[in-house]
Amino acid sequence: MRIDILSLFPNMFQATMGESIIGKAQDNGFVDINVTDFRQYTTDKHNHVDDAPFGGGAGMLLQAQPIFDAMDAIQQQTEGQYSKGRVILMDPAGRKFDQAYAKELAQEDHLTFICGHYEGYDERIRQLVTDEASLGDYVLTGGELAAMVMIDATVRFVPGVLGNMSSPMGDSFSNGLLEYPQYTRPADFRGMKVPEVLTSGNHQKIKEWRMRESLRRTLHRRPDLLKTAKLSREQQLMLEDIKLDEDPTVPD
Ligand SMILES: C[S@@+](CC[C@H](N)C(=O)[O-])C[C@H]1O[C@@H](n2cnc3c(N)ncnc32)[C@H](O)[C@@H]1O
């Protein structure tokens, strides 16, 4: 997968994109991340990429010209090797990012993220994009942090990146539920004991316990997820059972 990022602050990406799993994913050739400082494409003699809004108002807007020219350059560089893929405008008014969105983006061979700054965009920039994406209902100073989060969550789903595709699928949200509690050695730490079933060696019982705890945690912490989670008959019965024998006001 190729990922292009259009940003006025390319250095912001060095630390996060070069380290850990994303760094390794690049080293191993699973993803190729390229950051373009679109200021280099401005035709303004003072190197400006923003201007005041027509009709007046506070703040400055990113101009269309540098972004259109940067996109043309990326198109020329990638033509024949990658599709245009998805072009994602970072915007608090966009589609809210979640795990399903990450999985969807991971199917593409090419993603381009446009990171805004200042008060917003010249509206014509939206002609270039397939997606407008938001990290959440708050306003950041720029699209860079939001793009980094989206790239991190998406790259986890690119086959081979985690080495074992069962890992992202078992993560919270991937199956519509929160992840079950987990423990590692020692089995008794300061009197806090690991649930016996996990050290029993009985794989069927462990599987059932995990399913039950995943349902219980989701019911207690994020009951909204249960409205859309696709539960098997076994999970539905388990959930009914949990509701009967648990006081849902008790936090787990
Ligand atoms: C200061 S914000 C502009 C906010 C704009 N005036 C508004 O009210 O929608 C500058 C840029 O940061 C990025 N940004 C801010 N909040 C974001 C969010 N929640 N999700 C994604 N991008 C965001 C966008 O690229 C945005 O154009």
Automatic annotation (TrEMBL):
Keywords: Cytoplasm, Methyltransferase, S-adenosyl-L-methionine, Transferase, tRNA processing. Residues 1-227 form the tRNA methyltransferase TRMD/TRM10-type domain. S-adenosyl-L-methionine binds at residues 116, 135-140. It catalyses: guanosine(37) in tRNA + S-adenosyl-L-methionine = N(1)-methylguanosine(37) in tRNA + S-adenosyl-L-homocysteine + H(+). It comes from the Bacteria. Transmembrane segments: none annotated. Its EC number is 2.1.1.228. Its main location: cytoplasm. It holds the Pfam family tRNA_m1G_MT. SUPFAM superfamilies: alpha/beta knot (SSF75217). CDD domains: TrmD-like (cd18080). InterPro entries: Alpha/beta_knot_MTases, tRNA_m1G_MeTrfase_C_sf, tRNA_m1G_MeTrfase_TrmD, tRNA_m1G_MTases_N, tRNA_MeTrfase_TRMD/TRM10. It is found in: Cytoplasm. PANTHER family: TRNA (GUANINE-N(1)-)-METHYLTRANSFERASE (PTHR46417). Homodimer. NCBIfam families: PRK00026.1, trmD. Specifically methylates guanosine-37 in various tRNAs. Belongs to the RNA methyltransferase TrmD family. This is tRNA (guanine-N(1)-)-methyltransferase. It comes from Limosilactobacillus caviae. The lineage of its organism: Bacteria, Bacillati, Bacillota, Bacilli, Lactobacillales.
